[in-house]
Write a structure and sequence with these properties.
Order of helices and strands of chain A: EHHEEEHEHHEEH
Number of strands of chain B: 26
Strand order of the largest sheet of chain A: 2-1-3-5-7
Number of domains of chain B: 4
Strand content of chain B: 15-25%
CATH architecture of the largest domain in chain B: 3-Layer(aba) Sandwich
Number of strands of chain A: 7
Number of domains of chain A: 1
CATH topology of the largest domain in chain B: Rossmann fold
Helix content of chain B: 25-40%
Oligomer: heterodimer
Shape of chain A: globular
């Protein structure tokens, strides 16, 4: 059986979802038997031709994020949105409550530790989008794993299902936003 | 309406309900789960969230189960893929409409919106986020409203009006811009908000939260222990959340509890503040030695200056058990003067004279708080600026919201003045005459002797110094058919004549349930009712009557967990001072012997609440130090004291 070619990427995120991915611990051995990483921030390969599965963390917040996302979408068969930022916008979309310019000023000029600040500009600097948005605002997303960060077991569950070509929609008891604490039962 | 049984078919199953039930009530009666969000048992139905939509055969479109009356023969479907799809869409719309950032929300893990999303398998939203920037109001300090997390279910609005009766919260603006706050001020601090936090308890999301206790622990992290609040005689039931023996949250018992599970700001937030922690006093050396020194010192003062030179001060925060031991002690060692640390002194004197006028103090003659809801006219007499207690005020407001009238008679403005239909301001000394004239007036009015009325009103005006017009308008609220209840506040003047005329007036307007007088007295100390019952016969007096003539040479002060700041006002400095206290204060610094006492969170025992019911207090935190109960310490002190007396009398005989 040929290995499933997997690419992972993080856009505008905190890398926490990738940390959670590493938290699958010893299960990584089993996963590695069926997986070949073609690109990931946690391995050396930064370029790839095509893959079966792309797992993307973070929201789309600037022009570079968008370029990377569209490139990955074009090369993968199935795309997984990993974590609250990629699924809902998450932490990175909290800036949407303010306009772009005031966010830039706050970050680069008004910060308490900045003496003389300047909003970076130039051709090599990616442009901040007006709003940070989840992946499915720009491209088709096939599978969603919410969570901040998603639980390692939940990530492993989805990846294993997809390796076998099974339906990977999360059952209710595996869904969590925020961290993985047990939800208060609302119903029966 | 006569209740009739109705038969329905729900999800293919034959079930029964009562006529007048909503579809939701029939479902709940029959253990059929229908998801709800804006609905909360104990509040009126609102039908705002649409999660409880059900399919009724023969009806066009779906109907909300919480507001649709069930009818005989109805065929209802509560589940199915179509309904689930609608419910998912509603939840996804809620998620996208405002800013639900679970990862920073204090409610995450306890949030009803979040739980429903999980239940319906929502792993993303099909709608783009709107990211509005809505009003966040943290002006009140201990609590905040973040409209970014609000789903406009209106539970808080209904709680504030239907249960608290204060009508502070409302919907402001329209459509997507709707926010919750006080419509005129948009600021809780500037509004008439009582900061009772009742809205926090009903909010299904993190939109209204207690800033003081945020992030300290969610329900899963905590152990929930129960006791009653010891701050005032309402003795509200408390649900205390404890994490690693630290208090992290204080809640009421919910809408099914007494008075809708309400707490006041002092209960919900005050108990977690500084000065309410575990007891701090540790006796020097062994407790036995301290008790012996205390007994010897007080007995010596007694033998030197006479028995009456020693008196006692007792806090109405003590439990009934401690108070009984206290009574046994004062009786057995011959302490004739005890003074109750009640902040509303005139009411203590009031109660004492009432007992002299009506009989035994232990025999209850005042009516119970829930009677307020049945009143047509409430007479607020002698209210102070802080009167009345939150729960009593809530009951009065609810009665007013239901159509009752409020007449305020007294010297001062108070929290309910604004709501008074008639506000009669008196000068000091005028109250007695007014009340005395009301009894006869009511008798004339109830006997329909209308011809005598005019002259009687003129007479009452002459004797009270009020305008005849004021008396006439007051009489319109006391017409023969109306149920009248008097609520006596802390600024009541105290004299025997007034007490007699109030009782006389109470008798003329008709008694309440159980033959009680239509009269409710506001007092302050947590167990003041118990204290008056237990110490009633001992000549107990208010602390205001404490003699300043130097005749007191020895004091036993059982101040329990009274606030040290209030004790600072007690300027006593006798030759020998014994203080039993949970916290250090200027009083304990002057003491010759300091004995330990438990704080509210460590106590066990019973309180008698304002209505005369016994309430059980249980410890909510465990401390490493084993502080003995007040009653044990007092018993041991009494024993030691009696032994000293026996010894000295034996020595006396020897000599």
């Amino acid at each position: 059986m040929s290995k499933v070619r997997v690419a992972t990427a993080w856009l505008c995120g905190c890398s926490g979802c990738h940390m959670s991915l590493l938290n699958v611990d010893e299960e990584i051995i089993e996963l590695a038997k069926g997986i070949e990483f073609v690109m990931s921030p946690i391995v050396d390969m930064k370029e790839f031709d095509r893959c079966d599965l792309a797992i993307v963390e973070g929201a789309v917040s600037d022009s570079e994020n968008l370029e990377v996302l569209r490139d990955i979408r074009g090369k993968c068969k199935e795309l997984v949105a990993l974590g609250d930022c990629a699924v809902f916008g998450g932490m990175t979309s909290m800036r949407n409550l303010f306009d772009k310019q005031s966010v830039l000023e706050r970050g680069f000029v008004e910060t308490e530790t900045t003496t003389v600040g300047k909003v970076p500009a130039g051709e090599e600097v990616p442009e901040l989008l007006d709003r940070a948005r989840p992946l499915d605002a720009f491209v088709k997303v096939d599978h969603y794993i919410p969570g901040c960060p998603p639980d390692a077991k939940v990530i492993a569950y989805v990846v294993k299902r997809l390796m076998k070509g099974d339906e990977a929609k999360l059952p209710p008891e595996m869904i969590h936003f925020d961290s993985s604490r047990k939800p208060r039962r609302s119903g029966l | 309406m006569k209740m009739e049984e109705i038969a329905l078919e729900i999800d293919g199953k034959g079930v029964s309900g009562n006529s007048g039930d909503t579809i939701l009530e029939v479902c709940q009666r029959n253990n059929i789960y229908v998801p709800t969000l804006c609905h909360l048992e104990g509040l009126s139905s609102y039908g705002g969230c649409r999660l409880c939509l059900v399919d009724v055969e023969g009806q066009r479109g779906l109907v909300p189960a919480c507001t649709t009356p069930a009818a005989d023969g109805m065929k209802v479907r509560t589940r199915g893929e179509k309904l689930a799809e609608y419910r998912r869409t509603i939840l996804e719309l809620m998620l996208s409409e405002r800013n639900h950032f679970c990862f920073i929300c204090e409610k995450s893990g306890e949030c009803e919106l979040q739980s429903l999303c999980y239940e319906f398998g929502i792993d993303h939203s099909s709608f783009p986020g709107m990211y509005p920037s809505l009003l966040v109001d943290s002006s009140a300090g201990m609590m905040a409203i973040d409209n970014n997390r609000c789903i406009l279910c209106g539970r808080c609005v209904r709680m504030c009006s239907e249960i608290v009766g204060n009508n502070t919260l409302g919907f402001v603006n329209r459509g997507a811009e709707t926010v919750i706050n006080e419509p005129d001020t948009l600021s809780l601090e500037e509004s008439n908000c009582l900061k009772c936090g009742a809205c926090i308890e009903v909010c299904p999301t993190g939109a209204i939260f207690a800033t003081l206790t945020s992030y300290l622990g969610r329900e899963d992290d905590c152990e929930i222990r129960r006791t009653v609040c010891q701050e005032c005689p309402m003795a509200c039931d408390l649900k205390v959340y404890v994490r690693d023996e630290n208090l992290v949250r204080v809640c009421g018992e919910g809408l099914s509890g007494r008075y809708g599970g309400q707490l006041c700001s002092r209960g919900r937030f005050g108990l977690l503040s500084e000065g309410k922690g575990p007891s701090e006093i540790v006796p020097e050396g062994s407790l036995d030695k301290s008790i012996e020194r205390a007994a010897a010192g007080l007995a010596e003062v007694q033998s030197k200056y006479g028995r009456e030179s020693v008196c006692a001060i007792v806090s109405p925060r003590c439990t009934n058990e401690a108070l009984r031991s206290f009574r046994e002690l004062v009786d057995s060692v011959g302490i004739e003067r005890s003074y109750l640390l009640e902040p509303s002194p005139s009411l203590i004197s009031w109660s004492v004279s009432r007992c002299e006028c009506e009989g035994d103090l232990a025999e209850r003659c005042e009516c119970e708080t829930p009677e307020l809801l049945k009143a047509d006219t409430i007479l607020a007499i002698g209210f102070g600026s802080g009167d009345p207690h939150h729960i009593i005020a809530s009951n009065i407001r609810r009665a007013l919201n239901g159509g009752a009238s409020l007449v305020s008679i007294g010297r001062l403005e108070h929290v309910l003045t604004e709501r008074a239909d008639l506000d009669i301001r008196l000068l000091e000394g005028e109250l007695g005459a007014l009340i005395a004239s009301l009894g006869p007036l009511v008798k004339i009015s109830r006997a329909h002797r209308d011809d005598e009325m005019e002259e009687a009103v003129a007479g009452a005006a002459r004797s009270s110094g009020l305008d005849a017009e004021d008396i006439s308008s007051l009489m319109t609220y006391l017409d023969p058919d109306s149920r009248v209840i008097m609520v006596i506040g802390q600024e009541i003047e105290c004299n025997e004549d007034l007490v007699k005329s109030v009782v006389d007036f109470g008798n003329s307007i008709g008694r309440c349930a159980k033959g009680r007088l239509p009269l409710l007295c506001i007092r302050c100390g947590g167990n003041v009712t118990g204290a008056l019952e237990i110490l009633g016969g001992t000549g107990i007096r208010s602390i205001e009557d404490f003699p300043r003539d130097g005749s007191v040479k020895g004091i036993l002060a059982l101040v329990a967990d009274e606030d040290p700041r209030s004790l600072a006002r007690l300027e006593v400095d006798p030759e020998f001072l014994v203080v039993q206290s949970a916290y250090g204060s200027s009083l304990s610094e002057r003491a010759d012997v300091v004995l330990p006492s438990r704080a509210w969170s460590e106590r066990s025992g019973t309180y008698t609440d304002i209505d005369g019911h016994s309430r059980v207090i249980s410890p909510v935190i465990k401390t490493e130090r084993d502080v003995p109960s007040d009653e044990r310490v007092i018993e041991r002190l009494g024993r030691a004291w009696r032994e000293v007396k026996v010894e000295s009398s034996v020595r006396g005989e020897d000599a």
